[in-house]
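One chain given next:
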Amino acid sequence: MKPDSKITINELISTHPGAISIFMRRRLLCIGCPANTFHTLEDVSRLYGISLKQLQEELREAIGSRKKPTAKER
């Protein structure tokens, strides 16, 4: 899954809590910011001057690593 550039930060972290680690590691102030309800990944990329493609890739890896347990593993 590649996070869409138009997804809001709030929606992203609500749906995929594993994404929080990327924002924390990069020291982005998005977590807990009231603007995260309307700022998108595209906005964050522009505001912090980071590559949108790279941010999406890091988020995809963080989200993908949170594999859901199979019935056998439960």
Summary: Residues 11 and 37 are 7 Å apart (CA to CA). The two ends are 24 Å apart (CA to CA).
